[in-house]
Amino acid sequence: MLAILSVTTPIFMLIGLGFIIVRKEVIKAHEMPTLGRLVTSVALPALVFYSLSTRNFSEVMNPVYLAVYGLASLMLFLLVLVIAHNVRKQPLQTSVLNAMAASCSNSGFIGFPLVLALVGPTAAVALALCMIIENALVLPLGLILLEWSQQRNRPILESVGKTMWLICKSPLSIAIAAGLSVSVLQIHIPAPMYKAVEMAAGASGALALITIGGKLAGLSLRGLGDSWWEIIIPTVGKLMIHPLLVMVMIMLLPPFDPILQVAAVAMACSPMMSIYPILAAQHQYDGTAAATLLIATISSFFTISLAFWLFGATHFVEFGGGMLPTLFPQ
Q1: Cα-Cα-Cα-Cα dihedral sign, residues 154, 160, 165, 171
Q2: Burial degree of 186 (CB within 10 A; 0-12, 13-18, 19+)
Q3: Which domains does the chain have, with CATH numbers?
Q4: Residue 43: which of 116, 98, 104, 94 has the closest Cα?
Q5: Rounded distance between C-alpha atoms, residue 32 and residue 279, angstroms
Q6: Would the pLDDT of 308 be above 90?
Q7: pLDDT tens, position by position, 211-230
Q8: Among the four residues 118, 223, 267, 325, which has the most C-beta atoms within 10 Å?
């Protein structure tokens, strides 16, 4: 257990540092979105591009990983949508938001630093693969359903087109496409340019954690009223059911790299995406969404540590001079 805590504790210490920095007004709360944009528009895209472009295409595109993570995320999306809308009788819009929260990880801000601590540089490949699933499957599905629920008389293809255009022009999507293109075509990029990209990428992990901590400092649990079920459903779905579904898919589908198995489960263990309250604000649901993000992020320290103690502590493979937990020995 101490080995697991040695991985998770530094991550949440940096989140705590970001929280304190904003609470003490070293950085103002209104300045955190700018820092967040720096992470999502520069640091993480640089990391993804550098990692993909410096590897062979066969190393990067792991179809079994994509199937494992994609199927688990899609099943959870549909499960939470049915529970929230049909069982709890929530409106379709809030049900879709809950489904997106449960099935879309905070892969950039928390998932990547966690996986980086566990598996080293391979974390960037896992991040890119998760981003492909989220940007090509889960987020479009959720955003299309949100668009359609608002204007049900609009043709579904119009909603699909609008959503896919917004996703395709994001910096992370462009970085994935550019990195894969360089890998496939074996394009030579000058060393000074690669060095600059590598330096920008190196800042992504710590900066992302400090940013998420600063964002949490501005969230509140006040005025929730009877919203606790709307918080519990996506939180339990994200922190517990998502990693369990990923592990089930790993057992059912053909075996692949044990290091990427650990990365897939660790990504699924991270809390929901940090833009959840922003998406929810467009549907007057930001108060509950912000509270859900706050509770899930705090709870994830315990659930991540517990998950890797229960499922990873008894099996290890050698990695980088240390010992790395692997969930399913080959």
Answers
A1: positive
A2: exposed
A3: 2-325 (1.20.1530.20)
A4: 116
A5: 17
A6: no
A7: 878 877 766 666 555 567 78
A8: 267
